[in-house]
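We store amino acids, tokens; thus:
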Amino acid sequence: MNFGLDHIEDFKELLRSYSPAAEAADVLSSIELVILLGVSGSGRNAVIDKLVETGRYHFIVSDTTRPPKIRNGKLEQDGVQYHFRSEDAVLQDLKDGKYLEAEILHNQQVSGTSIRELELARSSGKIPINEVDIAGTVNILKAKPDVKMFFIVPPSYDEWISRLFAREDMNRQELSNRMQTAVRVLEAGLSSKHFTFILNGSLNEAAQVVDGQVTSGLTDGVRDKAAREITQKLLEDVIRHHPGTH
């Protein structure tokens, strides 16, 4: 699927110095917040789905400027996987500070977490959970330093690529964009101390580990170290298979 941004320079300018409106701080101070990160296809959304099934978590539906895709044989639905919005609408809300965070993804779309979704999460009485991309964590950490952030890691390069192509078709340019983004995300994740790394070799186990660490407030150092080592190997494999990405 080919799509892009007509106003990419406007988005870059807005996001360069973006900060959310004051109302975001009021909402954030009264909720827990769990954020999952990782490369596209790492299984972040699948882990979130498992956690939502427990009845203890509220999925925050992000906004995006891209059109719906066919994922796992089904067309994405507005308000379920994402709120699919026009560039003009997202631009205006950014100008008004109505996002906690937003980011240009793969140089072809803008996605972000809206304050209205945080308000819905607060009213649910459950733990808000979402997946964001690496640049969005800057604003989240600034607004809520006690946020719990987990970096989800596929078990190997081969398994990751298999997952990517199993869920959707990609042309050569889109794959190249994904690999460039993956290198940036992996490098940023490995260089940060804010993330707990979780191996997603078994979906049920990955969800259980995240849930256990959220509810206990404790980090499993052994698991974290092992997942970080796999992440480093994944980064090396991406660069080796796609030399133009680095």
Q: What stands out?
A: DSSP finds ten helices and eleven strands in the chain. The first strand starts at residue 34 and ends at 37.
